[in-house]
Design a protein that fits this description.
8-stranded parallel beta barrel, 36% helix, TIM Barrel, alpha/beta
Length: 258
Amino acid sequence: MLVIAGPCVIENRQLTLNIAERLKKIALSLDLSLVFKASFDKANRTSRGGFRGLGIEEGLRILEEVHHSVELPTVTDIHLPEQAAVVAEVCDLLQIPAFLARQTDLLLAAAETEKPIMVKKGQFMAPEDMRYVVDKVASRSRAGILLCERGTFFGYGRLVNDMQSLPIMRSMGVPVVFDATHSVQRPSAADGATGGNRAMVEPLARAAVAVGVDGVFLETHPNPDQSPSDGANMVPLDAVEQLLERLQQLSSLVTSWN
């Protein structure tokens, strides 16, 4: 089972490396394939005063150190077409944020790097419409694409997960990843910030693995409530190993049915 995990945003070098090293140990212990995720810029914060990150130059330096010193593949999100080639020099996988899943110029720029791309399904999109995203990327790249489910808007300040979207997107012939932590977000529900309910991360992740996915995405932090971004829905770092062990057991059972 593929696992994509890491902090929401790069706060500083040492914390990022500490989280990466802990995740590497967990991956080795459970024999999991793990890609380390962290954002150099959170460009879609709810309020102007929200912490955005360290920026592309410093952020990529830290991700490059994770790759070389911790020996983990890395992924980060890009927001502008001109960021694609620069990030591709450092990261093994490029992520397209959900709000930008239909941005053709961004998708094509990412595809032209010939790096694999993970596109998060827009909260406003039907799973069937992701076939157009696959077509856009495939028109410029043979490196591969992953689709990621991260919840759909139901009402103000609430996301829901339609598990039907997982087999629908898998039927397009591409791997599908379930984003367990962003799926429990409560957008704009925390006085100018995004809230969340981390207690629902494991139930939703179990459901997604039972339905059938190729990977699980989750964000983690040693002290989630102190994280400057998405703390309410992040998994405490100390709880990650047990969660992944349970998901791995469930994944093995589901695989044995096929």
